[in-house]
Amino acid sequence: MAEIVLVEACSHSPFLYMEPHQWNEVRNARPPTPHNPEMSEEENAAQHARCLAAFDVLREKMEAAKPDVILIFGDDQKELFDLDNFPAFGIFVGDEFEGYRTVARQGIVPGGQRGWRERTPETWVAVKNHPQLAQELAVGLTRRDFDISFSFDAPNKEHGMGHAFMRPMHRIVPNFDVPMIPFFVNCYFGPQPSANRCYRLGKAAREVIEASPLDLRVAVIGSGGLWHTPGSPTAWLDTDFDQRILSCIPAGDGKAMADAFDAQGAEPPPDYDPKNSRWVDGGTGMYTGIGSGTGETRNWVAAAGSADGKPGVVVDYVPVYASPCGMGFAYWEM
Predict the structure, then answer these.
(1) What stretch of H or E contains 125?
(2) CA dihedral of residues 17, 190, 264, 314 (deg, nearest 10)
(3) What pLDDT, on the 0 to 100 scale, is given for residue 232?
(4) Which structural domain, as residue segments, surrounds residue 321?
(5) Domain total of the chain
(6) Is the pLDDT of residue 275 over 80?
(7) How high does pLDDT run on average in the chain?
(8) Domain containing residue 278: CATH number
(9) Which residue(s) pair with 99 in the sheet?
(10) Residues 6 or more apart in contact with residue 223 via CB below 8 angstroms
(11) How many CB atoms are closer than 10 A to CB 294?
(12) Are residues 179 and 68 in contact, defined by beta-carbon separation less than 8 angstroms?
């Protein structure tokens, strides 16, 4: 029987793959706002070091767990899919995929010249999937009333697998030598599934894994978040929201995490304009809850659902105002 041996959750912001002396270069391209303080280079360096130290804890936990395969809940931001047909839930069931290890574009300042990075062994990697377990998940979740899209091959080979899947592996499994199953959750573009739906997805995924006849040690990662509003001209950081999410982890209460997320996004913000609120709904004009970067917290909820009932550990929370993004790192030992 397969079993889940470890669950982790982490942010995947590009700031985690930049040098801290570059952070204010990005920060300075954005208008100053009173609720998003400027940080010194020394403060940025200290925050960067904390984030890398937290990743070290997740890497050490992963090494100790010795998984045979890693299931990652992540989102796609028009990297493989586009708005011609965007899946709510999807899973890669092919043998192998490729992608950029960290950041796909050159340059660091949004709006600047940002062509594709050259593909080299340092920037690009091929990763094994576990197609047998991936296909069991596709079938088992469909039988549990989840409508699952699936891909045997990458729809966009130029870009390769999206950053939500590749970047955590770069820090946690830097050799990319453990098979990885990408599970797509539409977090960014409205209409998205509710966090409670994602919580039930995580619980159902655990049921499918534990019912599998395969002799596998499975790790799970929830990738993205926490609060960040890319695309907003007045981006800010809601640390209260992040703390409500993180407070559910020591209690092992994935349902409470889902409820906190859904309550935050029950109504659109007062200044919501479907024509100019990409940070809210990804630019579709269809609102069903928080979207854009903060919407990636759904991946934490799915991961928490797969560990539901097990107390977890918050390794660190770093409010990076240069982004601004709430960087979170957590794990559940199963």
Answers:
(1) strand 124-128
(2) -30
(3) 80
(4) 3-333
(5) 1
(6) no
(7) 93
(8) 3.40.830.10
(9) 125, 160
(10) 9, 10, 12, 72, 73, 74, 75, 164, 165, 167, 168, 296, 299
(11) 29
(12) yes
Give every CB contact of residue 297 below 8 A, 6+ residues apart in sequence.
Answer: 187, 195, 224, 225, 226, 227, 245, 261, 290
Encoded amino acid at 169, one letter: M
Instruction: Please report, for the chain, how many H helices and E strands are present, in that order.
Output: 9, 10
Structure letter (DSSP) for residue 3: E
DSSP state of 5: E
Distance CA(14)–CA(323), nearest Å, equals 9
CB atoms within 10 A of CB 50: 17
Q: How far apart are CA 247 and CA 191, in angstroms?
A: 27
Question: pLDDT value at position 57?
Answer: 98
Length of the chain: 334
Q: Does residue 69 register a pLDDT over 90? A: yes
CB contact at 8 A, 133 and 214: yes
Q: Which of these, 248, 225, 244, lies nearest to 320 by C-alpha position?
A: 225
DSSP SS3 for 311: coil
Closest CA to 90 of 141, 156, 164: 141
Ranges of H-type helices in the chain: 23-27, 41-65, 131-143, 163-172, 195-211, 239-246, 254-264, 278-281, 297-306
Q: Is the pLDDT of residue 16 over 90?
A: yes
Confidence of residue 236 (pLDDT cuts 50, 70, 90): confident
Rounded Cα–Cα distance for residues 76 and 92 (Å) = 12
What is the CB neighbour count within 10 angstroms for residue 45?
Answer: 15
Distances (CA, A) of 145 to 185, 198, 206: 16, 13, 15
> Is residue 64 packed enough to be buried (19+ CB in 10 Å), middle (13-18) or exposed (0-12)?
exposed
Query: How far is C-alpha 151 from the geometric centre of its chain's CA atoms?
Result: 19
Q: Encoding tokens for residue 307?
A: 């560990």
Q: What residues contact 31, with CB distance under 8 A and at least 6 apart? A: 233, 234
